[in-house]
UniProtKB/TrEMBL annotation:
InterPro entries: Aminotrans_V_dom (IPR000192), Aminotrans_V_PyrdxlP_BS (IPR020578), PyrdxlP-dep_Trfase (IPR015424), PyrdxlP-dep_Trfase_major (IPR015421), PyrdxlP-dep_Trfase_small (IPR015422). Gene3D superfamilies: Aspartate Aminotransferase, domain 1 (3.90.1150.10), Type I PLP-dependent aspartate aminotransferase-like (Major domain) (3.40.640.10). Residues 88-383 form the Aminotransferase class V domain. This is Selenocysteine lyase/cysteine desulfurase.
Length: 418
């Protein structure tokens, strides 16, 4: 098995770029933001402020995908012999990033898949209910609607703030606490709202839930599920330090991991039953039957993407979690300050860094968000997006692919729209 791997390595090295032409990843200097940007194949004519939607892969990730794809195309059965070791590499890298035991990490295809696995697998007693918020993702509502049809459990939505820009941690925690009933078993929240850019104080919320649970039997404790996708790869926090019971995220947004990948981490695996059959079996030697592996949906996947997730974590680690978060905060803060200074613009996202992350939403008086996004692309070569919710806003997601000059360009472009 090892021999086969070496052989593939040699074969693939032989058919990659020739020795005199270093590949972009070999030139990669993680300390230099221009070099970081150069790892992406994004259209240089555009300023990409929506790259968080669905990741563009940096060179090391593209190369890993190509390498695995070539191996699978050459000899699928032979290359698949590396499945376990390649998957373990991904779990080890994810565990280091999350600050978690790799055995507690299920590999998924998306945030949505992780939400679905928890909501479909959670064991509820008659009379137990679920609390979520008015600010969650529509996929979460669908998962909870399915949970409700399956169990008859009541699902309630609580409003955590009225004016997003003025949201405060204390008020958010108090409102959520007031909504938790004596029989609430599951609380579902989103770390950073893709509707407003508000970042919830998840660690404070988890501490509040622990207080609520202090008088409950362990089997009836309220469990906290977090959709973390817009904080993961953007905020300088170890997931394990958030204190939630379940954390689901796609790795194909701010982390710039392979499209169609994600992770579900839990410290309360006992509270859910696996939903999709696993390829790990407790009785099969070598299949490493930890909770995260048993909860990983089985079936063959787009393996070249899944395995290349290790390189996305490595890329992020090489640049540094705190440097990336600081860069995103710097861009977002400048963007919010600039937008707030334009008389026709209303900033929706909180200015304070602790109550926000990389997402920045605004509205322009008299201009529909879709029209503004279209004008930005057509006349200013700026790619923005529009929030897919009832109150649509113009949305920007400055990240590591952007420069301070591009942020200034966006501010000027928005100021010129009327
Ligand atoms: C809050 C939130 N959760 C989940 C998703 C979906 O992510 P995924 O493709 O990883 O399921 C999105 C947007 O795409 C989102 O904004």
């Amino acid at each position: 098995m090892l021999g086969a791997g070496v052989a593939y390595g040699v074969a693939l090295a032989g058919c990659s770029a020739d020795a005199d032409t270093p590949t972009p990843s070999r030139q990669f200097d993680p300390a230099d933001w221009e070099s970081v940007r150069a790892q992406f194949a994004l259209d240089p004519k555009l300023a990409h402020f929506a790259s968080f939607l669905f990741a563009s892969h940096p060179a090391p990730v593209r190369e890993a995908i190509d390498r695995h794809r070539a191996g699978l195309d050459l000899d699928p059965a032979g290359y698949l012999e590396h499945d376990i070791e390649l998957e373990e590499k991904v779990r080890t890298a994810a565990g280091a990033y999350l600050g978690a035991d790799p055995g507690d990490i299920a590999l998924t295809d998306s945030t949505t898949m992780g939400t679905g696995l928890v909501c479909a697998g959670i064991k509820l007693k008659p009379g137990q209910d679920v609390v979520t918020t008015e600010h969650d993702f529509f996929g979460t509502y669908d998962a909870l609607q399915k949970l409700s049809s399956r169990t008859s459990a009541r699902v309630r939505r609580v409003r955590l703030y009225d004016a997003p820009a003025a949201a405060t941690a204390g008020d958010v925690v108090a409102r959520l606490k007031a909504a938790i009933g004596p029989h609430t078993r599951l609380i579902v929240i989103t770390w950073v709202h893709s509707s407003t850019g508000v970042r919830l104080p998840v660690a404070d919320i988890a501490a509040m839930v622990r207080t609520v649970n202090s008088t409950r039997a362990p089997a009836d404790r309220a469990l906290l599920l977090v959709d973390g996708v817009h904080g993961f790869g953007a905020v300088d926090t170890r997931v394990a330090d958030l204190g939630c019971d379940f954390f689901t995220t796609g790795t194909h947004k701010w982390l710039h991991g392979p499209r169609g990948t994600g992770v579900l981490w839990a410290q309360a695996w006992d509270a859910i039953s696996p939903v999709i059959p696993s390829f790990s079996r407790p009785d099969a030697p070598g299949r490493l039957a930890t909770p995260g592996r048993l909860a990983t949906p089985g079936g063959y996947h787009t393996a070249e993407h899944r395995w290349a997730l290790a390189e996305a974590f490595d890329f992020h680690a090489a640049i540094g979690r705190s440097r990336i978060a600081a860069r995103i905060t710097e861009h977002a803060t400048r963007l919010k300050d600039g937008l707030a200074s334009i008389p026709s613009v209303t900033l929706i996202t909180p200015r304070q860094a602790e109550m926000s992350a990389g997402l920045v939403m605004c509205s322009i008086e008299g201009v529909a968000p879709h029209q503004a996004a279209a004008t930005l692309r057509r006349d200013h070569a700026v790619v923005a997006s529009v929030t897919p919710y009832d109150d649509p806003y113009l949305r920007f997601g400055p990240g590591i692919v952007n420069t301070p000059d591009e942020v200034e360009r966006v501010i000027k472009a928005v100021a010129s729209i009327n």
